[in-house]
Input
Amino acid sequence: MKKSKDIASFDVYDYLKHTFFQDTQRPYLMVDSSTYKAASIDFPIRNTFYGIALTKPGDVQVKIACEHYNITDSSLILLGPGIVSQWMTYSDAPTDTILFQETLLEGLATSTFLSSLPFFQPGGHHVLKLENQDYKNIKAFFLFMAQFKKEASILPGIVHSLLEYIKKLYYRQLSENQTKLTIKEKQIFKFKSMVARFFREQKQVSFYASKMNITPKYLSEFLLSETGKTAKNHIIDVVILDAKSLLKQTTLSVQEISYILGYSDSSYFSKIFKKMEKLSPLEYRRK
Output
């Protein structure tokens, strides 16, 4: 039975499963480009699942928290539960994707294995650029998964091995980036990572500045100079992306959503939303 995109409780994994896959019992979905395009999800979504997407060279554009990625090289896109992202409607969809629930690895890994992987956590590196050999190796994993996608006793082991490979790749790139990134680039990443983790509870620039041992004034001026946005605007961008997912994926009231996002005054939240989107929260929900 097909399931419509009902905003009363829109779970992307559930929607894809019921709309495009006959077998609804498996805790994983192998999703190709044509399925993504047919799904036509054009608003920010909050993951309730884990996702690994392998892209070919092309034009893939995705917004994850406060980072807008324009991906033109072979890359991995890695998202865990709670991460809000938006695939741009004009982007090429990822070529190979597996979405899966935590239960997939029961008996193969500890209960904390998935949640401990930094690329699945808020503020982590969610996009890894791949060298040719790494792309070939990961593509081989996806070919194995496609071959054994109906084998419930085999596929979890392939996914676990793939994650171990990605973890090794992630830390290798992290080590290399420590020497390649400039001090300014490291500061920008540190700020954005903290915003992704704390934006609901902490919206004051002073909180992030203190963590970076600089003044709020310097932080905002630095970010404006390097990114074109002030610290406050970076924080608001993440709040708005989260708000959009809540407005589209739930029937929570604007007051409830504003409370979840850390605003005690829903009218103040609505004012900020309308200033950024040129629509009120309810107008955005209805469009």
